[in-house]
Design a protein that fits this description.
The protein is an alpha/beta fold and 245 residues long. The chain contains 9 helices and 10 strands. It has a single domain, classed as Rossmann fold (3-Layer(aba) Sandwich), CATH 3.40.50.
């Protein structure tokens, strides 16, 4: 059974459709990257999955259980299964890296503080920041802040990690350190849904690639198909344009 099944999902901003009949499945441990032009619905899909935008049609199943986006209790449960890292780090500026990682598990989930701190230190070590746990966000580079944000998401013990253009706000020389962190998670079998414009990275790490345009899934396939032998003219045109630059 797929870990995540999206079936004919549709959503609007006001009266404007932003997702139209999107269907997609993600297996446990699979890394699915979503690419496409600006405004194609990539980030919107992640927002709908986590209930930040309510769908008006379609269904979502996580580990076989259908998500009821009209129920506050069901939304809380599904948000426990997902964790999202956005392009903006959204760290608490008055808290150290360690405190940024521990605050949600201790305050929101009421977990034991000693256990949470031990896990947080291990997560910060995993993302290469064991030497910066007492640093505040303004003492960290953009890449380091984004890695703290990833550690914070992992501290919630999600089943599925959603990454929304996590390198787009970074200077080019800082991108590699964040991508290296994602490679570590991939090697450990984390199920991930990644929105990215880093096409070389998408080709390298993805189990499959989803090409979206105009709020629709246009083509899904392994990276070799999407980048080397796309089956649709819309995808082929996009690939030609991005590979030209």
């Amino acid at each position: 059974m797929p870990h995540l099944v999206i079936d004919r999902l549709s959503a609007n901003y006001g009266t404007a459709p932003v997702l139209q009949d999107v269907s997609l499945s993600v297996e446990r441990g699979e890394i699915v990257s979503i690419i496409g032009p600006s405004g194609s619905g990539k980030s919107t899909l992640l927002r709908v999955l986590t209930g930040l935008l309510k769908p008006h049609a379609g269904v979502v199943h996580v580990a076989g259980a259908q998500v009821d986006y009209g129920s506050a209790a069901a939304l809380k449960k599904v948000r426990d299964r997902f964790a999202v890292v956005f392009q903006q780090y959204n760290l608490f500026q008055n808290m150290t890296a360690l405190r940024n990682v521990t605050i949600a598990p201790t305050i929101v989930k009421k977990r034991d503080a000693v256990e949470v701190e031990r896990e947080a230190r291990a997560l910060l070590e995993k993302v290469g920041l064991s030497h910066r746990i007492e640093a505040y966000p303004d003492e960290l580079s953009g890449g380091q802040q984004q890695r703290v944000a990833i550690a914070r998401a992992l501290a919630l013990k999600p089943e599925i990690l959603l990454l929304d253009e996590v390198t787009s706000a970074l200077d080019p020389e800082l991108v590699a350190e964040v991508l290296d962190t994602i490679r570590v998670l991939a090697a450990e079998g984390m199920t991930m849904l990644i929105v990215s414009h880093e096409m070389g990275f998408v080709r390298e790490i993805s189990s499959k690639v989803v090409f979206m345009a105009d709020g629709k899934v246009v083509e899904v396939g392994p990276p070799q198909q999407i980048f080397d032998a796309p089956q649709t003219e819309r995808c082929a045109d996009f690939v030609r344009r991005i590979l030209r630059h």
